[in-house]
Specification:
By secondary structure, the protein is α/β, with parallel strands linked by helices. Helix content is 34%, strand content 14%. It has helices at residues 7-11, 22-25, 45-48, 51-56, 58-74, 79-90, 104-108, 173-185, 204-210, 237-249; strands at 14-19, 93-98, 114-115, 124-125, 160-161, 188-192, 214-219, 230-234. The model has no long low-confidence stretch (mean pLDDT 91). Residues 20-22, 25-26, 31-33, 99, 117, 193-195, 197-198, 218-221, 236-237 line the site of adenosine-5-diphosphoribose. NAD-dependent lysine deacetylase and desuccinylase that specifically removes acetyl and succinyl groups on target proteins. Modulates the activities of several proteins which are inactive in their acylated form. Zn(2+) binds at residues 125, 128, 153, 156.
């Protein structure tokens, strides 16, 4: 079997790096499908990430997202994020599309990151949808448990919700259009640390392949691949991406 070699990155004109929770795992952010420990171990993250969950118990859901935000605030970009940012300086065009709601790509130096599932850092009103103008710098950590009452919207007094896409919600239209345009245009797509279980994001590697791109999967698990233009590199993103970058510079 032919292995994908990083030198091929140099020949690509437009590279898309498509990332999931696995790219942030080595920064200490638990992946969505990991068993959680400590405070949240008995909770199913998927059951907290819905509009119904917020309607039923907004303090529990807001507390969960504040906990995740506190994890992100203390986390640092890892060598995978840094290699992706450096790749931007090596290839003619690089688009980063992420399913992650953290800001580690940006903090590594990436610009114009397409956030398919929104961001932990852009809360908005659950009722009127206006962006929350209050400060979110002050991180409220649950002291005696998990619940934190969400702040209130300054316009309508509605509850403020995290600016992420929950299960059952559509992706923001323009964001999805931007992602599709890049995926259809690229000649190489690197899919990093995603289980490919959540639609429509999960279609991205297939769409790239069908539009003629070479597709490379980087994951702890081997991915099934089709044809000679799809590759599976098995291992940690924080090891494989710096290696590909070094090969590209050889
Ligand atoms: N390096 C590479 N891959 C890794 C690493 C690592 N260090 N650690 C974990 N992985 C892989 C796992 O093997 C798995 O395939 O990352 C993937 C993480 O999968 P998920 O937790 O399902 O994350 P993701 O694919 O991003 O989930 C998609 O689902 O939960 C919703 O909206 C949420 O954006 C999220 C979406």
């Amino acid at each position: 079997m032919i292995e994908f070699h990083g030198q091929r990155l140099r020949d690509a004109f437009h590279v898309v790096v498509f990332t999931g929770a696995g790219v942030s795992a080595e920064s200490g952010i638990p992946t969505f499908r990991d068993a959680l420990t400590g405070l949240w171990e008995r909770f199913d993250p998927a059951a907290l990430a819905t509009a119904d969950a917020f309607r039923n118990d907004s303090a529990l859901v807001w507390g969960w997202y504040e906990w995740r935000r506190s994890k992100v605030r203390t986390a640092k970009p890892n060598p995978a994020h840094l290699a992706i940012a450096e790749l931007a300086r090596l290839v003619a065009r690089l688009t980063v599309i992420t399913q992650n709601v953290d800001d580690l790509h940006e903090r590594a130096g990436c610009h114009g990151v397409v956030h398919l599932h929104g961001s932990l850092h852009s809360p908005r009103c659950f009722a009127c949808a206006r962006p929350y103008e209050g400060t979110t710098d002050q991180l409220n950590e649950p002291e005696d448990g998990r619940r934190i009452d969400p702040p209130r919207c300054r316009h309508c007094n509605g509850k403020v919700r995290p600016g992420v896409v929950w299960f059952g919600e559509s992706l923001p239209e323009q964001v999805w259009r931007d992602a599709l345009a890049a995926v259809k245009d690229c000649d190489l797509l690197i899919s990093v640390g995603t289980s490919g279980l959540v639609q429509p994001a999960a279609e991205i590697p297939r769409i790239a392949r069908e539009h003629g791109a070479v597709v490379v999967h980087v994951n702890l698990q081997r991915e099934s691949v089709q044809g000679e233009r799809e590759f599976s590199l098995v291992g940690k993103a924080a090891e494989i991406l710096p290696r590909l970058l070094a090969q590209a510079k050889e």
